[in-house]
Amino acid sequence: MRIGIVCYASVGGSGIIATELGKTLAARSHDVHILSSDMPFRLGEYQPGLTFHRVDTPSYPLFREPQYLLSLANKIVQVARSERLDIVHAHYAIPHATAGYLARQILVATRGGPVPSIITTLHGTDITLLGSDRSYTETVAFCIEQSDGVTAVSESLKRDTYRELGITKDIRVIPNFLDCSTHRRVDAEWVRQRVIGDPAGKVLVHVSNFRPVKRVAAVVDVFARVDRLVPAHLLMVGDGPDRDLAARYAAELGVADRVHFLGEQDEVRSLLSIADVFLLPSAQESFGLAALEAMACEVPVVASNVGGLPEVIEHGVNGFLHPPAEHGAMARSAAELLADRALHRRVAAAALETVQVRFCDGKIVPLYEDYYEEVLKASKRAAV
């Protein structure tokens, strides 16, 4: 198949999954074209069958129109025509579902070649935060309804979408996934020595884009409580609007010397491989890709019992889940994992098994391929 993938380039689950999907589809002999405003995070080196198309957005200060949306729709039209795309797969509802709808209308009206089917994948805050904003609701709902196919990364997000937007379109749940051949624990003691300089110290880690929904101040608070029970270090991987807030809070709590801010990192495997516990006390997680990456590296996750996380983590079996406000309970679970080696080994092994059995690319990507074929067949029947 000839597939166009539209995604954000910045750090975040939607862009990472879209890029990994494109890479895996190309490896499975599909012709894949990724469209974004910049080189996507984790796109990596050249791969046959995978082409990147940059969306250039002109800057006209007098205009207040959504210039990226218009440029993106135009680029989709151009690539769909030149590459004769079968599918345009839009990741993230705002504005990609809208751009896909507009591009299809242009292609239909101009009769410039085959019109690709539009598939929209919902990832999370595009629905739970932005999509529920009344400034966007009707437009987002309409463009989702007009998509030829719609997927969501969790049952929780599917329910949220129906509740927030009131749409009737069928939504297929296809969860996030990992390339299990590369996402695994590796020998990274040199990283431990360079980052914390303590060969035996316990390590907690948090990876995110440091937006308010990730509650990075809560991460620091949970860590400070853990540190009083079991001395440890905290790796804060990522960057974003709440980075300085987390740093100030670490200083206020007296743990600044053991909280290490490492910025955005393209490759987190070595950092996860020196960690003992992953903290994710988010206000909302539609799936929790960062948690899945930690589990693949045999790092037990202590997280909020929100959104799609209970679909991945079973409390007390392959991780621990608590209400977001219960920092003390999170800290106790983390401290128990740090202090009890047998418990840690059991939970880490169960976490790895969960990823390998349910969330490897070899299991999930064929679900996308089957869905593409299903949508294409339905579109052909509708055109007759």
Number of domains: 2
Counted beta strands: 13
CATH top level of the largest domain?
Alpha Beta
CATH topology of the largest domain: the name is Rossmann fold
What ranges have pLDDT less than 50 throughout 5 or more consecutive residues? none
- The number of helices is 14
Largest sheet data: 7 strands, parallel
What strand line-up does the widest sheet have?
Answer: 3-2-1-4-5-6-7
| Helix-strand topology string | EHEEHEHEHHEHEHEHEHEHEHEEHHH
Name given to the CATH architecture of the largest domain: 3-Layer(aba) Sandwich
Radius of gyration from the CA trace? 21 Å
Report the structural category. Answer: alpha/beta
* Range of strand content: 15-25%
Descriptive notes:
Strand 1, helix 1 and strand 2 (31-36) form a beta-alpha-beta unit. The strands form two sheets. The chain has a seven-stranded parallel sheet with strand order 3-2-1-4-5-6-7, sandwiched between helices. A six-stranded parallel sheet has the order 10-9-8-11-12-13, sandwiched between helices. It starts with a strand and ends with a helix. The chain has two domains: 2-177 and 361-383, Rossmann fold (3-Layer(aba) Sandwich), CATH 3.40.50; 189-358, Rossmann fold (3-Layer(aba) Sandwich), CATH 3.40.50. The model has no long low-confidence stretch (mean pLDDT 92). It is built from 14 helices and 13 strands. The longest helix is centred in the C-terminal third of the chain and has 23 residues, at 361-383. It has helices at 13-27, 67-83, 93-110, 125-128, 137-146, 155-165, 189-195, 216-229, 243-252, 269-272, 289-296, 327-339, 341-358, 361-383; strands at 2-6, 31-36, 50-54, 87-91, 117-122, 149-152, 172-173, 202-207, 232-237, 259-263, 277-280, 301-304, 319-322. With 384 residues, the protein is α/β, with parallel strands linked by helices.
